[in-house]
Amino acid sequence: DGRGLGIFDARLHAATPGDLEGILDDAASEALRADPRVRRLESASIAVSSSEVWLSNSAGFTGSYRQTLVHLALGVMAGDAAGSVVVRRSRTARTLAAFSPALFGDETARLAATSLAGRPPADGTFPAVLAPPAAAELLRCFTRTLTLPGPPAGAVVGSRRLTIIDDGRLPGGCASAPFDGEGVPTRRTPIVSHGEFGEMIHDTASASGAPGARSTGNGLRASFRDAPRRTPSNLFIAPGSDDPTDLVAELGRMGGGLWVQAVRPTPAVTDDDTIFTVLVTGRWVGANGPGAPVAGALVSWPIESLLHGVLGAGNDLTFGTLTGSYGAPSLLIKEIGVRAS
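^ that's the sequence the OP posted. Answer follows.
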């Protein structure tokens, strides 16, 4: 039953192939209805697992729990007389109630239509709003810079609007569990609190090399065949109180900016892990609101500058758009560098 963590869905456990086909059809049908420029499905799949985890080790620990997981993926092709594009998205969750397949299909189609019609803006530095998938990618890139032993506690690594948490007991979290792969109870670990660094996550091995540290329950196993290793659980940027539409409107009041709805990492552009380098899809926002679609624009900007430039966080915390265990709300960023790819 997931020990009360909301990670076991009896509906998923009992789902038949027909049930799953119905869920996939809801997403695919809405994707084809949402915009006439979406010509066909490029791919569509759904995968569900229901499992029970048992762990017993030489430290005297014995425990178990049940869990479910659903993974939905769509690829759609949008086209017109000038050409075509393919957009692929996926969503992972513990329960069927965690997201709407039809809404997922609609969002995928609209993103494909934006990508088809979009053009790069003029090169420059602008304020930006990162939608949750884009903000989650920024978070993932930030974690790559956090090598042991990590910054000193209290070091300023971002704006006061930025709080980052790793929570192995997050209700419904894709990486939630009552204990990790070493039998250590999971917990909530503040990585960054209001811009100041808190603490690193640890498994027992890394904690043994850090004076005064203990495992934070982050010794995760990819499967029973793999040894535990230090890994984030449910890592997320804490939401704020701002409505995301207000954050987008703020771009107009700031003289215009970029609403980044989706990103695609482009590591070939730079081998510097401290630089956030992505191709973006979204819209230009002016005084009258969202306007021209944007696609093919290259963002290459220091991660540190982006984190220090967080001016606001939305109330739309979303998980499951990357590996399932990264989450973020919309973020208003002071400035970001953009150029044609």
